[in-house]
Structures are given as structure tokens and as C-alpha cells.
Amino acid sequence: MNTNEILKKCPLFSGLGEREIAEVTAISTSKRYPKGALIFSEDEEAKGFFVVISGKVKVYKLSLEGKEQILHIVSPGETFAEAALFAGSTYPAFAESLAQTQVLYFSKQGFLNLIRENPQISLNIIASLSHWLRKFVSLVEELSLKDISTRLSKYLMDLSAKSGRSSERGIEFELDISKSQLASRLGTISETLSRALKKLRDRGIIKVEGKKISILQKEALEEISSGIPL
Amino acid sequence: MNTNEILKKCPLFSGLGEREIAEVTAISTSKRYPKGALIFSEDEEAKGFFVVISGKVKVYKLSLEGKEQILHIVSPGETFAEAALFAGSTYPAFAESLAQTQVLYFSKQGFLNLIRENPQISLNIIASLSHWLRKFVSLVEELSLKDISTRLSKYLMDLSAKSGRSSERGIEFELDISKSQLASRLGTISETLSRALKKLRDRGIIKVEGKKISILQKEALEEISSGIPL
DNA sequence: CGCCACATTGAAGGCAGTCAAAGGTGGTGG
DNA sequence: CCACCACCTTTGACTGCCTTCAATGTGGCG
């Protein structure tokens, strides 16, 4: 998919005509990062925000001891760090590419000018921020009120709904990130995630082959994800 | 403080003239709640949002087992549930008054009309949502990466900066909520909070008399709040 | 005065993190 | 093509923070 198509399906720019999209492209800069590159650091001055064109980016926090909490995995067509333009002057987290990645970069000033001439965009920003807010409320809820098995089950249910294919062995799909990264997204570490997966495997609820997951008992997984203890 | 003064200092309506403020007042409804009233429930249809005029409101999540996680304590001049108007159609959490409370209520439709005629407001909304987003990122970080003593120390440091008075015994201030509520805000339970306070007391870092807190060793508290283990 | 919600303290148990080691996987270069 | 290496994953044993359960203390208010 090319840059223009990605931009058009990006919620931030929906409702814009060809002409406006061209303006958007004009004020942005294309940047490329190899896998594992640091895109920005926590507390670094926020000079702009990003749209992912291809690849994958993780936005995360680090504790002093080095434990990582992933806030969001950003996929093509999604934006990140847009909130940093409007509150505070620094990025509140780290951003790192998980694969070779291409992004469009919008400088703060250029983008603010763009908003001024296209009020529609500010409504899109409101929608985008509201969406993020919901995601964070869910994340807080999970971290504070749910155990690891519940969080894992919910993640698997969500992912299966998004990219699962039915087969005679149940719903099959591939993890979109490594298990270490998944652990970090769920607020835990790889050892604990491994044990949680094992518990689901041992009960015949899922099958795991590397990154390939098969959901064998959807109802059971649904129950666990809604809080019924394992 | 009267309603008009509160509205003027509310970030959502900053930059508006007397006339516009009058319009804002005109489309809103005043509501009063006794202490402990349920203002809305999770998953209830979001028909509008609120500005607190007087009193105090907690916005919170509940687990199946009944454990509570407070997302935010809303004070006079602050808004809540505004994000619910722009993403999803239901409230993502519960809201309950912690004291006798007066709010202004804005219906979704009325407020959307107001935005249309006052584009400045949409910029204010963006700022407000961005601010919330930062707060939630901090909350996620704390819940996932910090222990209770660290979270408590940070809360006390923040509160002392906001409402502390210097005295010969150190910085003094009052907790703005009950200790049970504070526990819930910090993602724990009252027993654990009580023990965390005791540890700080035993080391002579703070003094606790009911809701009155005195910070005796600011540097030590600062250290703990930044992650140096107790 | 006595009730009731809030707060404190102790003892015990569990979930998840830490430490350590072995097994697996993919990528790279010889 | 294969051997090597780095990284990811899994498993086991142990530790520790926090929760649970239970009992007692306390302060405000009818």
C-alpha cells in the first residue's frame, strides 16, 4: 500500500479531499528506521508527531530496574505522539521500531497551521484522542483489577476477532508481536506469560505452535477473559 | 464561588467572552447530588458530560470481585465524561459523588452545536483530552512499574506541592479524600495503604494524624517517590 | 451512649517476579 | 549448506509483595 492510500484511511485525515491530502503530504517528512531504532525518548522535547506508513512501532515506559510496559503497538495507518503536541512539551514515553518502519513526521508548527486551515482535522483529533483515552482506561482496568490469565485471554479474544480464520481446529491466527513483547504489553514478563499460556494449553483451551495460536474452546476462553477464574 | 466564576476558570471554556459564557450556561442544566449518589454507571448510554461546580466526584472502575480502581477525583472547575461524547456511545466507568455535589450537565447534542459555533472550544477540548491522556499514562506507569510505597510517596509529594503549607514541623497538608479512597486511587486496598503509611511514619519521614499529614523529611520522600527502594 | 463506617494491626496464603539453566529458533557468514 | 551465535522461549525452584481474613481500635453523629 502506498503512502497516499495509508493517509486516506488514517482517521486523522478522514473527510479530507484530494487537495487537502496533498497539503498534508506536503508539510510532512518521510523517515525510515531499521528494526530496533529509538524514534524518541521519554522527556525528550516533543517537536512533532508521527503516522506509521509501514512496519510497526512500540510506545513504552521503562522502570528504573528496566522492566518495560508497552502502552501501544502502532500499526500502519495509525498515529502516535499526537497528544504530546497539545499537553506538555515533552514525549511522555519511549518509541522504538519493532521492524523496518516508514513514518511520516509532522512538525508541531506545520501541523498547527494545517489545523487552522482545516477545522475538520481538529474534530478528527478529538475523536482520535478520545479513542486513545478509552484504550488507556481499559489498560488501567486490566493492570489494576485483572490477573494475567484474564488479560491474556482478553488479548487473544480481541486478536482472534481481528485477524482470526476459522478452521476445523477452531479459530487460528498469528501473534502480531513476539511473546516477550506481548508479556510487556500485558504488564508482565516472558516467564509469567509462558506459564499462563501453558495453563491454557494444558486445559485444551488453546493450541500454541510458535506464533500460531488456535482457539479450541472459544467459550472457555471467553469466560476466562471476562473474569471467571481459571 | 458562583457558577459563572467556576465556568470562567474551567479550561474547557477559556478564551470565551461573557456572551459565549452566557450561551454555555444557557444550554446546560444544573444538577445536585447528595453524598454517595451514583451519577452514571459503566456501559450506560453517554448522553452528555459534566462540569463540577462544587463538591467532589470519583470516576472509577469495579472488578467482578468488587475491588475498586479510581481513575480520577474530579474537583470544582474540572470536567468529566467529555471523552464519552466522541468515542463509543457509553460511559466507560462509574461516577459517584463523594460529597454533596453540584454539577452542570451538557447534553451531547447541545454541546456539539455549541462547538460548531465556537471553534475555540474544540481546541480547548483537545487540550483537555491531551491532559487526561498524560494522567492515564502516568497511572499505567505507576500501576505496572512502581510499588505501593513509591506510588504513595509520589501522591503525597504532588499533594504537598498543591496544597501544602510550610511550618516548623515540615510541610503540612490534609488528604483530600479518605484513606480507603486513596488506597483505591493508588490501585490497592486500605490495609496495604495503612502499612505503607506506617513504614513512612516509622522512619520518621512523615507524621500522620487522621487526615493531616506532615512531611518531615522531604528529601527522603522525594527519593522514594522517584523509585529508590524503601 | 451506642452505632457504624473507617482505620489499624496481625497472621496466613497466593500470584507474580526473580534467578538460574536448558532448549529452541532464526539469521549470518564462512 | 551448515555451523555458530544471539536472542527468544520454556521450565523449575524460590522469594516477596500484596491480598485475604479476622479481630480490634477509633472517631463522628444521631
General description of the model:
The structure is a homodimer of 230-residue chains. The first copy, chain A, has helices spanning 3-9, 18-27, 108-117, 119-145, 148-163, 179-185, 190-202, 218-225; strands at residues 28-33, 38-40, 48-54, 57-62, 68-74, 79-80, 94-97, 101-107, 165-167, 170-174, 206-209, 212-215. Chain A starts with a helix and ends in a 5-residue tail after the last helix. In chain A, strand 9 and strand 10 form a beta hairpin. The mean pLDDT of chain A is 94. Helix content of chain A is 43%, strand content 25%. The longest helix of chain A has 27 residues, at 119-145. In chain A, the strands form three sheets. Chain A has a four-stranded antiparallel beta sheet. A four-stranded antiparallel beta sheet of chain A has the order 2-7-4-5. By secondary structure, chain A is of the alpha+beta class. Chain A folds into two domains: 3-144, Jelly Rolls, CATH 2.60.120; 146-225, Winged helix-like DNA-binding domain superfamily/Winged helix DNA-binding domain (Arc Repressor Mutant, subunit A, Orthogonal Bundle), CATH 1.10.10.10. The interface between A and B is large, with 39 and 39 residues. Chain A binds a DNA duplex (30 and 30 nucleotides) through residues 67, 147-148, 178-180, 188-195, 197-198, 210.
